[in-house]
Amino acid sequence: MEQVRIFDTTLRDGEQAPGFSMDLDQKVRMAKALLELKVDVIEAGFPVASPGDFAAVKAIATEAADMHDTFICGLARANEKDINAVAESIAPAARKRIHTFIATSPIHREHKLRMSKQEVLEKAVAAVRQAKDMADEVEFSAEDAIRTERDYLVQVFGAAIEAGATTINVPDTVGYTTPQEIEDLFRYLIANTPGAEKAVFSAHCHDDLGMAVANSLAAVRGGARQVECALNGIGERAGNCALEEVVMAINTRADFFQLTTQIDTTKLYNASRLLSRLTGQDVPRNKAIVGDNAFAHESGIHQDGMLKNLQTYEIMRPADVGAPTSLLVLGKHSGRNALADRARELGHNLSGERLNEVFEAFKQLADSKKNVTNDDLKSLILGHAMNA
Ligand code: KIV
Ligand code: ZN
């Protein structure tokens, strides 16, 4: 099966979001986890942003001096100073990529850059030409590509490829697109950009409308072969496409996508939790793949189904993502079978009338308590035995 490259931007787009900044040591620890995950590219930072970020990118590049499976990348605006800073900071890495970008949409050209179409195009070409001789690979991004005129996008991308870019990134900078629209856009760009066959097209989706993962997967359907994403979906505003979600979607639905990634999915849970610890930001309970509830079941019907066959209510195994085992949580929605099963695990075989009585007492307790613990259950069983 063809492979989709996973470009991780936890340490750049993710880290630049409020509440998620990391110091040098924390970034290096996170980068080690990303290397273990086997991401194809680590975007380690924006070196020109601060001396601290420059040092962090350099430290990560040093950590990856012998790592030939992962590119270390830094972000640069389309200017000489930014590109020099990236080139210098990623120099120690075994494999180096410079990621340079300029905005192309009318709103950015007119209000932010105050540049004509031609000026933007010339800047893009000059940046790629400069970067080409300073790293193994150059990626070019057209910021706000989604809101850019299609014919102009094709012109800029064609020029960037001719100048030496081998990855062409199409960011949905403001999380505005929809799955159908982005799939169609990728098909159009790949069919119409001169030299498209010499480059890998990449999706970079933000989550402002909660569609970053769906949009990234749609872009893949349209021909994207690199997805830019971040662990736990962190990133500017509502975040980036969540790495663990897009990887597990491709993996779990390989029958549909007919694609694969090189990610070691069994390391996903630990990497997600490490990020949470380093940034002090909890992973929401109901977060897909890595949340506490991702493999937890409380309702009686679901618990009964799980006890009969795990696949009744789980499409992945916790071990696939390195998460702790599935949990049948005892609460007010739980049923008799789950209670009897937990009691058995605790060394008590309940059946018939005895099970009914303990179950009744359990329901009363569960109405006043979110989660009935093993200790609660033991007291109920022993209390009932003493009263009997
Ligand atoms: O969202 C965006 O447009 C970006 C680019 C710098 C790739 O993060
Ligand atoms: Zn972004």
Automatic annotation (TrEMBL):
One of its GO terms (biological process) is L-leucine biosynthetic process. Mn(2+) binds at residues 13, 204, 206, 240. Pathway: Amino-acid biosynthesis; L-leucine biosynthesis; L-leucine from 3-methyl-2-oxobutanoate: step 1/4. It catalyses: 3-methyl-2-oxobutanoate + acetyl-CoA + H2O = (2S)-2-isopropylmalate + CoA + H(+). The keyword Phosphoprotein does not apply. It is an enzyme of class 2 (transferase). One of its GO terms (molecular function) is 2-isopropylmalate synthase activity. Residues 4-269 form the Pyruvate carboxyltransferase domain. Keywords: Amino-acid biosynthesis, Branched-chain amino acid biosynthesis, Cytoplasm, Leucine biosynthesis, Manganese, Metal-binding, Transferase. Its EC number is 2.3.3.13. GO terms for cellular component: cytoplasm. Its cofactor is Mn(2+). Catalyzes the condensation of the acetyl group of acetyl-CoA with 3-methyl-2-oxobutanoate (2-ketoisovalerate) to form 3-carboxy-3-hydroxy-4-methylpentanoate (2-isopropylmalate). Belongs to the alpha-IPM synthase/homocitrate synthase family. LeuA type 1 subfamily. Homodimer. This is 2-isopropylmalate synthase. The chain holds residues 1 to 388 of 525 of the full protein.
